[in-house]
Amino acid sequence: MSILEVRVPNIGGFKDVGVVEVLVKPGDSVGADASLVTLESDKATMDVPSPFAGTVREVRVKVGDRVGEGSLVLLLEVAAESSAPPETAAPAPAATPPPPATLPTPVPVGPPMPSPAPPSRAESETSPPPSPSGLAHASPTVRKAARELGVDLSRVTGSGPRGRVLQEDVQKYVKQALAGQVSGGAGLDLLPWPKVDFARFGPVETRPLSRIRKIAGANLARNWVMIPHVTQFDEADVTDLEDFRVKLNAELGEAGPKVTMLAFLVKACVAALQRFPEFNSSLDGDSLVLKRYFHVGFAADTPNGLVVPVVRDADRKGVLEIARALGELSAKAREGKLGAADIQGGTFSISSLGGIGGTAFTPIVNAPEVAILGVSRLSVRPVWDGERFAPRKVLPLSLSYDHRVIDGAAGARFTSYLAEVLRDMRRAML
Ligand code: CAO
Fold first, then answer.
1. Which residues, at least 6 apart from 394, have a Cβ–Cβ distance to it below 8 Å?
2. Residue 293 pLDDT more than 50?
3. Is the CB of 306 under 6 A from ligand 1?
4. pLDDT tens-digit profile of 354-409?
5. Ligand 1 centroid – CA 356 distance (Å)
6. Total domain count for the chain?
7. How many angstroms separate the alpha carbon of residue 261 from the centre of ligand 1?
8. What's the gap in Å between 300 CA and the centre of ligand 1?
9. I want to staple 38 with a disulfide (CB 3.0 to 4.6 A). Which of 21, 58, 320, 408 is the partner?
């Protein structure tokens, strides 16, 4: 037995390349040419193969490390007779061997996740960005495994960084398929999309979809198809709150953040989520994961499409702090500067179209969340107070939820309570 150092081979001139997947751990037996780690530059994904069959002794890299040709990947224990000087390995503790000529096959990678999020930021956490070439974001090893198992990688949800499809995602997908849980387009047996030569009927202009729109579209379509949606409509009398908001903005003047209804809505939703915890949950197979944190996402309209930044720990923030966060995140969203941390971890979303108009709409649940609140334009309406009609400011609410998790009665209770809180925000403190 001897120990060999396995190093990064010649990878075609790429330097400072990220380790995106470590495919082995100490104690694993590997065959010659088995993939050990996956590297990814901004142009290609490549696996570092094992030069010999052997047993992994120590792994010297981790996901996120930056490596280049000659970097030490791991120590491999091999049978003495097979340890002739290899191309990609050197006996320990010998000095770094000259890098071999091996060039792993680069695979084009999908586009990186945009800094702005698609509506399903889980998205950003769990959904692979569609690549223009149709290639899923996965290493050559994972591709090979998927090919052998007959798995269409574009249907697999990646749990790796930037939505990368990992080996275990393929395994999970196969298990689900065997258990009959995989639906998606394949199970729907749909007609092909109509192909029409529109130019035959009049002048047309063809514009490519922005990357955000493509990603958002794929997420929305999945959520629409896979989640049994119900939308509960309600309205809240926000007369006092709106008067207070206007007064508050006048007091704050230029110095303060601009406080819109959305900041109060975030706070009111947190109160409702605390009272009805299943709205702040996610389905995970046969379990419901109830989150004890309250990160509220809000849909923001940007020139490139819809994104959903997240106000973190909204339960621990006051309305002014929330207003400030909304302002900062909206500005970043419009400039396309949202980072991963700005769009991940949301537990509930709000889509406010109130600044634009409309009376009601049916928002699509932002998976893996289970509910989303749509808000339309408030209007002044005559409301019967028991003795007479009085002019009141009424805010329309449209709550869509995943009926697998939330029953209709719970949906109605949630919006009723939310309306109560919005009528008198002191209730949020109870
Ligand atoms: N009713 C009446 N007026 C409202 C209102 C409501 N429900 N909500 C906001 N407004 C008013 C604001 O008070 C503000 O008025 P002033 O200009 O007079 O001060 C105006 O509308 C514009 O508000 P805003 O849009 O700047 O601020 P916001 O906090 O309400 O919203 C943001 C911020 C980022 C959510 C919003 O700009 C946006 O992008 N909305 C679109 C979201 C979207 O596309 N949702 C659909 C997703 S599903 O396809």
1. 235, 236, 237, 238, 378, 379, 380, 381, 383
2. yes
3. yes
4. 999 999 999 999 999 999 999 999 999 999 999 999 999 999 999 999 999 999 99
5. 6
6. 3
7. 8
8. 9
9. 21
- Region 132-157: mean pLDDT is 74
pTM, full prediction: 0.64
Please give the number of the atom of ligand 1 that sits closest to the Cα of 395. Answer: 7
pLDDT tens-place string over residues 306-333: 899 999 999 999 999 999 999 999 999 9
Does residue 212 fall inside a structural domain?
A: no
363 lines ligand 1 (CB under 6 A): yes
Task: Out of 45-49, 75-79, 123-127, pick the least confident.
Answer: 123-127
Does the pLDDT value for residue 65 go beyond 70? yes
**Is the same domain home to 376 and 404?**
yes
Judge if 49 and 112 occupy the same domain: no
Determine if ligand 1 sits within 6 Å of the CB of residue 319.
Answer: no
Question: So what's the pLDDT on residue 139?
Answer: 79
Q: Which ligand 1 atom sits closest to the C-alpha of 355? A: 21
Given a contact cutoff of 8 angstroms between Cβ atoms, the answer to whether 367 and 226 are in contact is yes
- What backbone torsions phi and psi does residue 311 show, to the nearest 5 degrees? -90, 115
CA of 378 to the centre of ligand 1 (A): 11
43 part of a folded domain: yes
Q: Does residue 143 or residue 423 have the better pLDDT?
A: 423
User: Where in the sequence is the domain holding 335, given as residue range(s)?
Assistant: 229-429
- Whether 11 is covered by a domain: the verdict is yes
Q: Do 157 and 243 share a domain, yes or no?
A: no
Residue 393 contacts residue 239 (beta carbons within 8 Å): yes
Residue 199, exposed/middle/buried by CB under 10 A (0-12, 13-18, 19+)?
A: exposed
Name the residue of 352, 369, 375 to mutate for ligand 1: max ligand atoms within 8 A of Cβ: 352
Can you spell out the DSSP letters for 69-123?
A: TT-EEEEEEE-GGG-S--SSEEETTSPPPPPPS--PPPBPPPPPPPSSPPS-HHH
Atom 20, ligand 1: which residue's CA is nearest? Answer: 355
- Residue range 207-234, pLDDT digits in tens: 999 888 898 999 999 999 999 999 999 9
For this structure, is 295 an active site residue? no
